[in-house]
Amino acid sequence: MKPAVCLLSGGLDSATCLAIARSEGFDCHALTLDYGQRHHVEMIAAVKVASSFGAKHLVVPINLRLFGGSALTSNIDVPKSGPADGIPVTYVPARNTVFLSLALAWAEVLGSADIFIGVNAIDYSGYPDCRPEFIAAFEQMANLATKAGVEGRTRVKIHTPLIRLSKSEIIKLGSKLGVDFRLTHSCYDPDGEGRACGLCDSCRLRLKGFVEAGFEDPLEYPK
Q1: Count of H-run helices and E-run strands, the chain
Q2: What is the count of structural domains for the chain?
Q3: What's the predicted TM-score (pTM) here?
Q4: Range of the domain at 93
Q5: What Rg, from alpha-carbon coordinates, does the chain have?
Q6: Is 219 contained in some domain?
Q7: Looking at residue 181, what DSSP letter applies?
């Protein structure tokens, strides 16, 4: 099987993306970034998801909290009043650029030409680094920036199988591929017991997706 690096946050999108990579016959190497996020419980979810698929799993610590600039990496309140205009404060500056760069480094070491990331441009929070044009630009850069690319040994492909799917379509696909959504975590501001708040943008998108998919979200939410 060809090796592939799969970015895995612990959320339902990245879990489904990992399931897709496995279903396509790749030897999956899951990469999780511990970047100082306030919703650190997603790290526990990522470990469980990777284990459930038998994927090799690497957790890499990088401290984006040193920069701040986001409600996920500083002491800015996570919005809970519904979607607002513009790019929300939960956007982490250059996060996917950093994540894909680290995935690219691991892929080159593994001799892999395939990187999977669960970005979505339909039901998402408006982050600029989830758009198809960003992915295309990064893929072009990746093939200029690596030894394997310059020597012509590898042509890097950034796989984004969820980019044109709605959240409900992602949930249906994940269910079909055996994703155990009980293991996943999506909330930006969980309580002290790790339970999802049900009110942040990520929770709202998740809950809406389950309703539209005709499934019940298996996670526990505060009453």
Answers
A1: 7, 5
A2: 1
A3: 0.95
A4: 3-213
A5: 17
A6: no
A7: G
